[in-house]
Amino acid sequence: MALKINFKASRSRKLLKILIIIFATIFILLFIRFVIGGSEDDWICVNGEWVKHGVPSAPMPTEPCN
To answer: What is the percent of the chain where pLDDT is above 90?
Structure first.
């Protein structure tokens, strides 16, 4: 009987470790995507012209685009 209890406890600890690793990986990927990745809504210079990317909150830049 004691072996079954230890086996279940060991199994649940492994499952908990796996879940923590999965959630940590998801958190790290989302952090990289949204914090380090920067804004998706911006003006981009393409072939000397400003092109809207997404829905930028700022108006189109007035300075020339190179």
So the answer is: 58
| DSSP letter assigned to residue 61 | P
Could you report the per-residue pLDDT of 32-56, keeping only the tens digit for each? 988 887 778 899 999 999 999 989 9
Give CA–CA dist 6/38, Å, rounded. Answer: 48
Report the C-alpha gap between 43 and 61 in whole angstroms. Answer: 8
Instruction: Give the residue from 26, 59, 17, 21 showing the smallest Cα distance to 42.
Output: 59
Q: What would the two tokens of residue 33 be? A: 């995507």
Asked if 41 contacts 57 with a C-beta cutoff of 8 angstroms, the reply is yes
